[in-house]
Task: structure prediction
Amino acid sequence: MNIDFEIFSPVHQIQDKLFDEHGLKVFIKRDDMIHPIISGNKWRKLKYLLKQAQTENKTHLVTFGGAYSNHLLATAASAAKFGFKSTGFVRGEEVNNDTLFLCRLHGMNLIFTDRESYRDKSALFSKHFSDYPDAFFIDEGGASPLAAKGCSELINELTDRYDHIFCACGTGTTAAGIINGIAQHQFKTQFHGVPVLKKGEFLRNDIDHFLTEPAEYQLHTEYHFGGYGKVTDELIEFVKQFVASTGILIEPIYMGKMLYALYDLIEKKHFATGSRILVIHTGGIWGLLGMKGKFI
Result:
């Protein structure tokens, strides 16, 4: 089966009085519209990994994630769509939730793993799948040079030029891919990453690891709201207001933090008047399933 499908990821302008006051134009690339489940950077990161699995005649995708992992769900849906089996190692105690229900519905076998064992993913893979030559290892979040390659193709799709590009950062793979794409096209665009984890400066090493050449970029590390998966009432209120005023669905773990950072930096006059800013919608809206209680 051909590992591909037509990408639909339009760019929409976001209207806001704040942007007008500062003489800025802000746009959003709707990678969330690529596929209902395999959306955003999830498809971009998986695309070439799936092609590699097919080239190696592997038929069983094995990957890793937390109990609310969008990557697990995207891998399960990709496996179902393209004819693979799938297994997900889930970090932590056995639970049942909406995300894992959807993983199982797409045929994924789940193996719950204590947090200590989970740290050594290669050892977990070897322990369970060393006797299965059809098994294909995919790291947590799809982190790999092939994933960065897929993310770099986002820049190929842009028909306009932007002074700044913003993206949320979890593993650094998507950021590296976009930076590589900017460099390949020799654009003067400044990349801004917003780590969603505490002390996110460490992501600079992860990003640099996947860069095809050295590059300058900015990391805004003060918008983690307490760490990965953590939110505050202020962040939840921002997400609610953004969705209600734009009609664009986002979640608070990645997109909410990144957009909050952008709005805050605009208020602090971080950008020159006349700047054109593009934000990347990295999908992941199924993450809202694990946050429903925060919005009540």
The chain has a mean pLDDT of 96. The beta strands are 11-14, 25-29, 60-65, 85-91, 109-113, 135-137, 164-169, 190-195, 218-219, 276-280. The chain has eleven helices and ten strands.
